[in-house]
Amino acid sequence: MGRIKAFFQRKNVVISARRYGVDALGAMAQGLFCSLLIGTIINTVGSQFHIDFLTRVVATLGSGEHSINYTVGGLASAMSGPAMAIAIGYALQAPPLVLFSLATVGFASNTLGGAGGPLAVLFIAILSAELGKLVSKETKVDILVTPLVTILSGVVLSALIAPPIGRAASAVGGLIMWATELQPFLMGVLVSVLVGVALTLPISSAAICAALGLTGLAGGAAVAGCCAQMVGFAVMSFRENRWGGLVSQGIGTSMLQMGNIVKNPRIWIPPTLASAITGPLATCLFHLEMNGAPVSSGMGTCGLVGQIGVYTGWVSDVAAGTKAAITAMDWIGLVLICFVLPGVLSWLFGLLLRRIGWIREGDLKLN
């Protein structure tokens, strides 16, 4: 056992919840952002502003009736599997031959995983990367052995377990969305609070939403919860952090407050209460739906990705004929749920907690 542990240590194979559940998951979300999400944004910008280069077909795969046309954004979106797998390998500190080989693994696992592809990529890319690391530089023909082990293990695992993982993830996401449609108030609270908390924790709410394919009303509740955390912390900590803190948390990440939350968990109460209010308002009053890319559901106001995702969903629904038009009520609901209410509610709750001494001066100060 000691020799195996020493070998794993030498190969930098660290089996831990942080390495896989925080580092790898967070990197996967970044890979997804740099492919599927940015591709969706490019397509939306191109179509809405009639930019010819962004809407023109730049590549065609296949021929005849089976051909697939790609725009610039389409090419970016098509690379989501490889992008996620390579990002995961980077987080696991995989050597170059393993890292480059993960492109094939990501494509296979994402394709065979179907709607739950991102979750399949997470599991399979981790396993293939670690197997590749174990054999890396152990033979004189490393340039053959390492890619072979990484790619073959990834493709075999994709064939065996990607479909059931994908179906399971899709089923869970479908259950959450079904339950939200059935009980919009209760599920609005639960989804908003849980996804919002995940956004502030050092895990990836975006990756979770992507893995579960969280869209529709549930996606809207997730957006509400994420915005409540980001805008809430930004506004309630303005007296300590001023404009720099407002921007870094409001369109960056509320994860910056994790160090302060560990010191005084009570500072987490105001934005969490705000999310418990804005979530059901999003589902019951404004019927806010995320019908864009599922990863957008877990992004909140980070780069305004959550709002862009909602807007792209509106555009797609109008184009498909399932939505008549984008109304003033749609915009009012989006602005209130994502910006106004999170700021006002978190500030009021924060003011109350400051008055009773649960939050002290400096508790929200960012280093």
- Beta content: under 5%
Structural class by sheet pairing and helices = mainly alpha
Helix content: over 70%
- H-E order: HHHEEHHHHHHHHHHHHH
Q: Oligomeric status of the shown chains?
A: single chain
Basic shape = globular
Helical segment tally? 16
Biggest sheet, spatial arrangement of strands: 1-2
- Mean pLDDT over the full residue set: 92
Question: Would you mind describing this structure in some detail?
Answer:
- 73% of the residues lie in helices and 2% in strands.
- The protein contains 16 helices and two strands.
- The chain has a two-stranded antiparallel sheet with strand order 1-2.
- The mean pLDDT is 92.
Question: Topology, please?
Answer:
Elements (H helix, E strand, L loop, with lengths): L1 H9 L6 H32 L3 H4 L3 E3 L6 E3 L1 H7 L1 H12 L4 H18 L3 H19 L6 H41 L1 H17 L4 H8 L3 H21 L1 H13 L7 H6 L5 H17 L19 H16 L7 H28 L12
Antiparallel strand pairs: 1-2
Helix pairs in contact: 2-4, 2-5, 2-10, 2-15, 5-6, 5-7, 6-7, 6-8, 7-8, 7-10, 8-9, 8-11, 9-10, 9-11, 9-14, 11-12, 11-14, 11-16, 14-16
